[in-house]
Design brief:
It contains one helix and eight strands; from the N terminus they run E-E-E-E-E-E-H-E-E. The strands form three sheets. A four-stranded antiparallel β-sheet has the order 1-2-3-4, with no helix packed on it. The chain has a two-stranded antiparallel ribbon with strand order 5-6. It has 75 residues and is mostly beta strands.
Amino acid sequence: GSPKQVPVSGTYEGIVVSLKISADKAFIGNRQVKLDVPAQVIDGRTLVPLRFVGEAVGANVHWDAATQTVSIETQ
């Protein structure tokens, strides 16, 4: 069967971001958005799509393929 859709949420500077494990949709406040990759649990750890979470709270998210690193910048 499919994994249980357990809710995950967080708040940053008044912005509430919520999603469910293995779901392809999430919420920024009351606005629903489609995820490129759903959140998942691997080895007991909850992994969320970093670009979605970062951009949802207004951060700039950049992937550097050469060094395989992610940078997240807020202002």
